[in-house]
From TrEMBL:
Signal peptide: none annotated. This is Transglutaminase domain-containing protein. Residues 318-380 form the Transglutaminase-like domain. SUPFAM superfamilies: Cysteine proteinases (SSF54001). It holds the Pfam family Transglut_core.
Length: 681
């Protein structure tokens, strides 16, 4: 029944369908699900009619207004070719209200007749190669971090409900989109003001996050709802090497949902299967497959869309239509990726420039092993550059002018919305309802105001709140020996707590590590390079194989089953595990047993301290960094800092976790250069 009625609606038989649905809804034979489905089909037809409101004369008038030299013959030809979007509803040809606008986005001849016109996509400074892309790639290559070019963005978002859209005295319920806290990408979200008291901010567990406001409608008065907030955002570039990307033998459980169909918009239709086979050929590398799919979808022309709630399947629509907008392109790419066993998911919100450009926007995320989840934006597409890292920037990277509301589509709002959503897929403008039903887009307006402020990197020990510093200095970056001195902050000043004593570091000296300090130029530590990390690092806890040791740090007694994992690509990389818990396979290949007295016949790890280098556990960026006992004053480590047992005992008894101790390891030159800026002792 539903399929037959849907087919009638798709064929434009609205009057017949409305009568049939109304009859079915009133005769009491439908179950709850059928009632909801058919009720929405009535709503869908109303929304389609709101999109297709223009006559041919309306479109013709629009085109002649902006392209004064266009002829009737040219317009008729475009219409004959189907370039002016229309639907036949109850036998009458009705044009999409933006058919004329879209012609200028899609047809080169039309845009050549419009003097001085710039297409919408071309107005966005980041839809072509830009210094911002170059800076992100260069910065991430230098620092070996995925994140760079931070911005603070301040937002005022306003939704204004038309006067008398809701009867006077009735409660207007409003959901405004609100940013999600996303580690390293979108952080420090601060609500600074709102138009109404007691706003309800949905938790980050809501994949379409909102802030809820409400107020009673007043006769003949528009009601304005607004919020002000700020957040920090980072650009992203993973600089992916296709040769490092490996296909899954088995899809991990936590990724299974991202390689399956997600109806109605992610469906592996016969048409898409056929297209996929033609595009992929015999390629097996996941990243190279993604490149082929990305290139195909990027070739689709962009145009503004009818409302998503009126489209039954966005990916299929993008395949069949002569153009697709950002969400349709993204959904098509996600579907094709999933068909190839490559995990992919939705992400969306808003995008800006530093000055005039802003728009709602949809993009996605794709998972490549061993890089993990990385951004993709096929609407920005392939950039015109001979540098492969820049050319494919948007397949593994993203600019820092984004506002992320959504990490999935068609997710429930909080508090729950009682009536149909105006936007059933995305959540970028907001939602409005009252007890009598949904308030659709044509009964309210929205306004986005923003300000972008680049974040200048500044850093000092004061920012960390630490009161204890273990300072390690070497003469040069290739030196294997150095000196260690302890300092404690007293009355706001650093006071030396010990005489300096000898230590040894990595067999090839020092290199910048990943810690608390800002990213630095120069060589950065990598797995197996024999370098101890330079920079500032938390000293998190102590370890050893004695029953206990004298220290105010937390202490973990190690057993023969404890290993620190230094195996590239391991899910436990840079983490200490218990073999009896994780299993024999998980420690396979690790060269770091924590009971060296048992496994390696030495006592280097009799007493030690964990150094929080590479706290995000990024594969290949260096692992298992400790302060431990040395073999001797001329014998370096594999990448740690080591000393004699007397000085280790002195250090352990002095360290106090309540004072947030850190280790600062630098060459003498870097210490002199950074001492004032970082407020070092």
């Amino acid at each position: 029944m539903l399929n037959r009625i849907n087919t009638q609606i798709d064929q434009g038989q609205f009057s017949t369908s409305k009568v049939e649905i109304t009859t079915l809804l009133s005769d009491g034979t439908l179950n709850e699900k059928q009632t909801a489905q058919l009720s929405f089909e009535l709503e869908r037809m109303v929304r389609i009619e709101k999109d297709f409101v223009s006559s041919f004369a309306d479109i013709k008038s629009y085109l002649k207004k902006y392209a004064t030299d266009v002829t009737d013959k040219q317009i008729a030809k475009w219409d004959e070719n189907g370039e002016l979007e229309f639907r036949v509803i109850d036998g009458k040809k009705r044009y999409f209200k933006n058919a004329g606008y879209n012609l200028f986005q899609l047809n080169d001849d039309a845009v050549s007749l419009r003097e001085g016109y710039t297409r919408f996509i071309d107005r966005g400074p980041l839809y072509k190669i830009n210094q911002h892309h170059v800076d992100i790639v260069n910065d991430t290559l230098k620092t070996k971090s995925e994140f760079a070019q931070s911005n603070q963005i301040t937002i005022k978002y306003t939704l204004t409900v038309d006067a008398n859209a809701v009867p006077a005295g009735e409660l207007i319920r409003v959901w405004l989109p609100f940013p999600r806290e996303i580690k390293d990408r979108q952080t420090n979200i601060k609500l600074t003001a709102s138009s109404h008291q007691n706003p309800i901010i949905a938790s980050d567990d809501n994949l379409q996050r909102t802030i809820y406001l409400q107020a009673k409608a007043q006769a003949d008065m528009a009601e304005q709802f607004w919020v002000e907030y700020s957040y920090e955002t980072n650009g992203v570039s993973h600089n992916i090497d296709a040769n490092n990307v490996k296909p899954f033998t088995n899809i991990p459980d936590h990724l299974q949902q991202y390689v399956t169909e997600q109806l109605p918009h992610i469906e592996f239709t016969p048409e898409l299967k056929q297209l996929n086979k033609r595009l992929i050929g015999d390629e097996t590398n996941p990243y190279k497959i993604a490149q082929k799919l990305f290139q195909y979808v990027d070739s689709k022309k962009w145009g503004t869309s009818i409302e998503y709630s009126t489209i039954r399947n966005l990916s299929q629509h993008a395949l069949a239509a002569p153009y697709a907008d950002c969400g349709q392109q993204t959904m098509l790419l996600i579907t094709l990726l999933r068909m190839n066993g490559i995990p992919a998911k939705w992400q969306s919100g808003w995008e800006f420039s530093a000055d005039a450009f802003n728009t709602m926007h949809d993009w996605g995320m794709v998972y490549f092993e061993p890089y993990g989840w990385v951004p993709m934006d096929v609407t920005h597409g392939i950039l015109d550059s001979s540098d492969e890292r820049l050319k494919w920037f948007y397949l593994g990277g993203l600019d820092s002018y984004r506002l992320i509301f959504n990490d999935d589509y068609s997710q429930p709002l909080y508090p729950a919305k009682q009536h149909f959503r105006s936007e059933t897929v995305d959540s970028q403008r907001g939602e409005v309802e009252w007890s009598g039903g949904n308030v659709y887009f044509d009964q309210w307006d929205y306004d986005m105001q923003w300000q972008v402020t680049p974040i200048q990197s500044s850093f000092s020990l004061s920012d960390l709140g630490t009161e204890q510093v273990v300072l390690v200095i070497t003469d040069i970056d290739s030196a294997i020996q150095g000196r260690l001195t302890r300092f404690e902050k007293q009355n706001g000043q650093w006071q030396q707590q010990s005489e300096s004593h000898d230590i040894v570091v990595g067999r090839t000296g020092l290199a910048w590590g990943l810690g608390l300090h800002p990213k630095q130029d120069g060589y950065h530590k990598q797995e197996g390079d024999g370098k101890a990390p330079a920079g500032i690092f938390n000293l998190t806890s102590s370890f050893g194989y004695l029953d206990n040791i004298s220290t105010k740090l937390d202490y973990q007694q190690m057993s023969s089953d404890n290993f620190c994992i230094d195996v590239r690509g391991s899910q436990f990389y840079n983490q200490t595990v218990d073999r009896s818990v994780v299993g024999e396979e998980a420690i396979k290949g690790s060269s770091e047993p924590m009971r060296r007295d048992i496994h390696s016949k030495d006592h280097l790890y009799k007493k030690g301290i964990f150094v929080a280098h590479n706290p995000k556990n990024i594969s290949d960026q260096g692992s298992c960094i400790f302060v431990h006992l040395w073999r001797g004053e001329t014998k370096p480590t594999a990448g740690c800092t080591a000393m004699d047992e007397f000085n280790m005992d002195q250090l352990l008894s002095w360290l106090d976790k309540s004072k947030k101790p850190v280790m600062v390891a630098l060459t003498q030159a870097d210490y002199e250069r950074l001492k004032k800026e970082w407020e070092l002792p």
